[in-house]
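Quarterly update from the structural biology core.
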Amino acid sequence: MNKYQYPVEVHSHTYHSDGQFSVSELVDAAVDFGYKGLILTDHNSSAGYLEMAEVEAVKSGALVTLHGMEWTTYFGHMLAHDADYDVDWREATVDTIDDYMAEVRAANGLVGIAHPFDIGSPICTGCHWDFRVKDFSLVNYIEIWNSNSPQAKLESVLAYELWLGKLLEGYEISCSAGRDWHRPDGPDANMGVTYVELAAGKALTPATFKEALRSGSYYITLGPRVQFSVGDWHMGDRVGAGKLAEGGAGEGGSATAEAGADGGAAAEVRVAVTPTELRDLKQFPVTHAVVSVWNNNTLLHQSEPVAELGGDGFEVVFALDTAAVKPGFVRFEVRGDFRGVENTLVVVGNPIYVK
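Predicted structure, tokenized:
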């Protein structure tokens, strides 16, 4: 079953901290780019969010917004998304960050580790993540792509490896992309875009936007659009291995099914890849695209390269023996030649979690 997908940005700034945008300028730039959702995350301030409600695109529903803040400390930057109140960051220490993440979560907020491997002191004191997290179940997502040209940064590779390592340890943590948007970009800029995924017919609202982020019902991309399913299950779903071949929840990210005792059924895996529809990213085509599907660290399927990603794109379909699927997760990614570099990671999907 296809899903509705909406491009959103979850890491942005205005002149309420160190950005060059006014709130209205940021909203207008977001609508012009093609975003349908936006979270303002000024450094240690949520003042700009109060202005958003008065901007025409927000009042009309053209852009859905959530409250946010980027905690900016000496030990790391943390995205606190849509908590019921602004949790005080000032007393957090290297060894007590779990207590503060727990408070954000208790306040109905979402926690993201921002650019964990950015350079730190003395170039950018606090930009590197030095907090000692004891319980990564308190973390909703790790930002593996930050700012422009994330595909060209060693920091992205290290963040991707951190995220994947935590998945393999059993944590249900999503990967995220943050444009870390401070100012208008030049015409040659490329950035990671987040697509939240909702059940067909469901509109993007503050509630559905937040729930998609909470459950992990989204993927990040340098351009291509992707529809991924295992049977009727999609990113963010929780399912027993023996149920993978059975019907999903239909709402995305909310289903949990117990594993069957016998297993052995086959589930159809579909990965449909299409070109970007975003104007500013059309200048960066992906060639020789390859789809990979993983169960934990086991490669389940890898497609043949598709020389040109044009028109209606392409689809990869294969049968998955659910009896062979191990508890953990099933996920996809797409690699291809991008901006002159071969085998670039261009799309990363968040997992279907297998119990």
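The radius of gyration is 20 Å.
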